[in-house]
Amino acid sequence: MEKKTQREREALFSKFSLEDRVAVVTGGGSGIGMGIALGFAAAGAHIAVAELIAERGEATAGEIRALGRRGLPVVADVTRAEDVKSMVDKVMSEFGKIDILVNGVGGSRGAKRSPITDTEEDVWNLIVELNMKSTFLCSKAVSRIMVKQKSGNIINIVSGAGLRAYPGQLAYGAAKAGIINFTQGLAVQLAPYSIRVNAIAPGITATPGVGFLGNPEERALKVKGILWKRAGRVEDMAYAAIFLASDASEYITGHTLPVMGGPYQGLRMLEEAETEWKRKG
């Protein structure tokens, strides 16, 4: 009985393994992308790290190799079709397959909060291109490989801003919402080829690009509406990505997984709830 239990336990844990799978992680040189790349390597995968800045890609690839997996840095601007094609060609030449694509490139490029009347067209185009176009181009190129393989897994990194109104930055919120819709549609298209497509929606996450986390007062205000009372960590996103990339989630596709410490309640809702509980206590 004990041996059977051990075998069952091993079989269960094996569902979460990424042993010898090949993953392409765009934006894998920093932040959430880097966390996912290293998490995948710890789970057994080999990683191609696509980065615009060569030094970042090299650094992440070096950490992947230190974990005993193969790490391939690829310099690419994934908003350019020719760069994406070159990236895919290099990965196929090195590994011969692509099992997982993580579309991690995105962000707002430091765009300031502004009403629509003050939003510059160039800023709108830049943010939509950085988020939506990069996801489209990479998914298109890698899907061709996965369709031939009749297997694959695509994970898009979106944002809580795509799940609810984000009036401060209309372009960013609209772009992330567009990727969520794209995720659903692509999941339908690729299901006949045993390719799954899902998304992860991080909330506020502690990365170098989130400057307010260094200010205690501003940090306290920002996390006020988070039920778990803290900002997310890159490890939180990596664990979610490992789950979606693994066989443990083989019955999940077309889904956006929020990873944000619980549904955002808003300051007023949370304050009212806390006041009521204190009154009853």
Question: Can you describe this structure in just a few lines?
Answer:
48% of the residues lie in helices and 14% in strands. By secondary structure, the chain is an alpha/beta fold. The longest helix has 29 residues.
Describe the structure.
There is one protein chain. The chain has about 280 residues and is of the alpha/beta class. The chain has one domain: NAD(P)-binding Rossmann-like Domain (Rossmann fold). Helices cover about 50% and strands about 15% of the residues. It is built from nine helices and seven strands. It has helices at about 1-15, 30-40, 55-65, 80-95, 120-150, 170-190, 215-220, 235-245, 265-280; strands spanning about 20-25, 45-50, 70-75, 100-105, 150-155, 195-200, 255-260. It has a seven-stranded parallel β-sheet, sandwiched between helices. β4, α5 (about 120-150) and β5 (about 150-155) form a beta-alpha-beta unit.
Structural class: alpha/beta
Shape: globular
The span between the termini is: 49 Å
Quaternary structure type? single chain
Strand sequence of the main sheet, in spatial order?
3-2-1-4-5-6-7
CATH C-level class: Alpha Beta
Could you tell me the CATH topology label.
Rossmann fold
Structural domains: how many: 1
The CATH architecture can be given as 3-Layer(aba) Sandwich
